[in-house]
Batch of 2 targets.
Target 1
Amino acid sequence: MTSEPTKTPTMIECHSCGAGAPLREHFCPQCTNILQLSRHGDYFSYFGLPRQLQLDPQELEKRFRDLSRQFHPDFFYNGPATLKLASLERSSYLNDAYRVLKNTAARAEYLLGLEGLSPLKAEATAASKVAVPASLLEEVFAFNEELDEIREARESGAPHGALVERLERARAPIVLKQDEHEHQVEALCAQWDADHSRATLEALRECLLERHYLTNLLATIDREAASLASA
Amino acid sequence: MAYSDKVIDHYENPRNVGSLSKEDANVGTGLVGAPECGDVMKLQVKVNPVTGVIDDAKFKTFGCGSAIASSSLATEWLKGKTVEEALAIKNTDIVEELALPPVKIHCSVLAEDAIKAAIADYKAKQEKGEPALAGAQPHA
């Protein structure tokens, strides 16, 4: 695992008894009270997991359930305000962390951010351009053109039955490609766990970006299918 | 965030939508994409081999309103320009003309990339020396 930068604190002060507690703890080892949520640390350490991209979903779920029970605001209902707040904050952070970590792509995107790679947001494009393979662009363009033609045919009153069939024919290769991408992402995740190399992360970032095209295309197909079904 | 009137105008009445023949030696094609938002943009120029002036420009963009407007505006500007003048078009000119907000600046970058890609494709074709254009030289 990559080492943490030295300036990041590793201890948190317990607001109940003033003792120092390691960041990975949720409850003070001295007084056993719930600790306020630290601004440091990440989703992986919160679950007591190493910063790895492959994880056992059952193990993650088990930890999620255990922690949700321990943090549950009901237990702190009559307690001091600081503990009530800590329980709320820890519960809500836990939910966010679980939502991200349980999804392969979201987990990988999150890790890219932790490792200092630019986010996958549109605004970042100008600063950090990724070269999309020309062959993929051509395919995406052709897929888009086909969908455009289907939409135009629908708008000019072509019989819907044939268009639905044509739309499903267009969907099949995209779904296939998405599956391919899924495997590629999984392979790169395994590779990162093994080598923790920057090059692997960058390949992963490109792969995740390319997925946006496929996700967009499938969303367009779903919209078109809905229009065909409703009219 | 609201689109400017100019963006809306280009979006609703895009200029020069369509395709030119990719096989034509005088046509340069640029296909670029912004994977962050799933946009793809195709921009083509048809250059007069004698004068080096862009006679025609076409585009087809699958993307947001700003991406469509940026490429539509780019084709308008390209017509009548020489290849070298076309290369001088900057994304900031597009941003200014369309009053694009900061979050949409990448759409103008995409349009500039598309212009550069189309002209690079045209020049590459010329250098290959298409027989039909044996007399035409790339314009420096």
Target 2
Amino acid sequence: MDSIDLVFFSDHKGRPSNPLLDQLPSYQSLLYHKKQSLSSSTKRRGSVRGHFGSLTSGKWISAKMDERSSSSQQLIREQPKTMEEKRRAKEQHVAQDQDLHGWIHWHVHACRIFKRVKVDSLEVLSALVLFRGDIRVIEGMFGTGILSYFSFLRFLVLLNFVMFLLMFGFVIFPIAVAPHASGNITYSQADGSECTDYPSSSRRGLVVFHQYITDLLSGTGFLEQTYLFYGYYKVEAINFHKCTYNIPLAYLLVTIAYLFLSLIWIVKRSAVGFKRSLIQDEDRFQSFCNKVFAGWDFCITNENAARLKRRSLLYELKTDLEEERIKQKIAERTRYEKFRIYILRIVLNLFVIAVLAGCFYSIYRATIYSAQNEQKTNFILDLIIEYLPSIVITLGNFITPLIFSVIIQFEDYSAAFEIRFTLMRCVFMRLASIAVLLLSLWSQITSCSIDDCPCGYNHKLYPCWESRVGQEMYKLMIFDFLIIGAVTVFVEFPRKIIVNHFNCGLAKLWGQQEFSIPQNVLEIVYGQTICWIGTFYCPLLPAITTIKYCIVFYIKKVSLTNNCRPATRPFRASSSNFFFLVVLLIGLALACIPVTVSIAQISCSQACGPFTNYTTSWEVIPHTVSQIPHGLRALFYALSSEAFAVSFFVVTCLAMFYIIALAGAHKRVISQLREQLAMEGRDKHFLIQKLCQAQKSARCRDMPSKSLMVREQTSSYINPNHDHAGMFLAQSGADTATHV
Amino acid sequence: MGGAASQLPKEMVSEYQELTFLTKQEILLAHKRFSELQDRDSLSSRVPMEKILTMPELKSNPFRRRICHVFSTSEPNDGSLTFEDFLDLLSAFSDSATLEIKSHYAFRIFDFDDDGTLDAGDLEKLVNCLTGDTDETRLNPEEMRQLIKNILEESDIDKDGTVNLSEFQHVISRSPDFVSSFKIVL
């Protein structure tokens, strides 16, 4: 180290001219950048900036020329040089291009113009990206952790919009347009049995105004017989001139399509994060480097956010250092202490389960009560009864996280695990409450008072049970939205005013609202799960969700900039992105279960909806398959046979084993290479020590020669006790490193 | 600012577009912001470091002085920037700059004594910059020693007691947050 300090104060300037010095590994790594940009620019060009590298055409000459022009340009840009040097390099290239003869010259020129047009048009296109400006502002003020929440929200807006387009394009649009396009709509016929009796729920006569509000909020009355709900789609087929459009089939396929689309889109988005988290798990020893070298978020411009970031970095570093000590402590725990902690954890977990069970039971009671209670007493009471399940669920979601965060403090886990564990409990609470609601609805729908159940469901209480489920989801969605808005306006805003204007101790203690990313993500994942479940029963739900998330985006932005402060313990952008998507995937899996069960198992209602002619919705598929030509039909049968399933399973397993083996091999190679690197380093040390000794003995003999100079320089690079030659070398090395 | 006289010529803009990772709008915005800081209306005039540091984008950045020193081309290095230095800065911190260029400049910013390697002294200064350099925010000597030992254990592959550029780039390439956080948005 001393030699470097020594070097720093010396003002020698010069370059190492000796070939032996140039071969030193440390000097080589200083030159690393220069070499790399020369040798591998073509390879890198394709991977790093794909859209610029994709210009190569088939002809060899154009490919070659393109390589030349674009690699030179890439090169210039990618060199860490000052503008002056870059300009000179570019002029050199231009001069070289001038030597080329006519056509090639023209081609290079054309390529350059084409590229410029392309860059400009990309710029114009990027201006169209949703919420681009807002996201940039947020990024600039609060850094990448909070940004990841907002880009997640934007992703959900897009997903819901595409889901809406699917539903609209294949189901709603054909029905809406059929009368105008000489299409003939065939409605399914009621055969007069009791199952097909569907009393109209729209109010007759003079309707009090507030009834409309109730209807609008709960999806009953005039809203029930609109495009909003399943029951309205009582269309069997649309006959155009030559072909018929099978609405039931389209309805079912769109449902399957939107679930698959969501799955693929989420998996594709999370693939990157998954890879990263795998690498991070493997590289457990990189945590300190990540925090120190990539710790500062250069996007932060807000003074307050910068202070918080500093504090959180300090906190993280301190806790990480302490974690090692805690690990030591855990290892040293006595048997009695261990016993005490485990007992405590078991008791607290039992308590958590009891709290959850209490919540679920109250949701169940509320659902049944709200379904059976029909008396019309007064407007407000009606509305509350109508909304009772939603209110109970929201209350549960509001209170249980508070309880969990108190409980976790007594359980004595490590800090990182504490946060994750609380979150998992909250996720479970949120999603399980939807499951309980659906289960209680399901038990209501399928239970018949007496043993006869002619329609397969409780047709007296629910003549069109799908619409009923749709209404329930619609209510949850609306209520969730109202709560988000109300919390911002009636809780966060007054809290901020109180904290800012009253300087007393209590208000200070309370502090400003923290913008906690995990809780907010849970909130929108919950909404998305409802949307996935509800889209089958309420086809316009994705449209409502899209609008809802757009508004939520702006509400959250305003509340973040005005009311909240960022959380003291921030989320890292990379890990959190992956975490969001995992929670979303859990939500999707949960949403798939009720939709699949209701499509395949429960008899669909006979009084409404597109599937009145079938016992279950799924029957449309076998029915359609039986009508298509023989060859195709055989193919479908083959695809659904056991033989195909078994062979498919075997092939998948084989592929998986191959990839696992490959990963294992890579891992071993990496560890071998790492060992080799450390070995080389040791070798280098050893050799330089040998050189030192040789130099000492040479000096003893006092034979000044040119070759000796080399040794002196080399040895003093690591050994500070020698003469100025060392400064000369290290200084020149540093010089080249910083000014290449 | 923004008047007809201070407009960038079109050829210059397209040249800058070729030489940096910035888009046309970003270059024009950078020019507008830079000419607000300038006294005289000429591209080659330097703006002293103290004035650059008043920009809100840099004001709360603990590395602001190092950034100016690294990107300054003045002789002797006083941290003052010309417009082109400023564009270089923005280009390295832009969205589309490669990991390689970002890590190169990050290395130079973190290399407080400009000697081409990150040694224990550099790391200590770096950590103090991150946590804030006051008595109550600093790590105590014991913790600092432990932390530096851990960092070197993780990143110093050839075990020579310092982190050099290629080791640094190796570590950075495995750090997923770096590219997204090493960014300055005007």
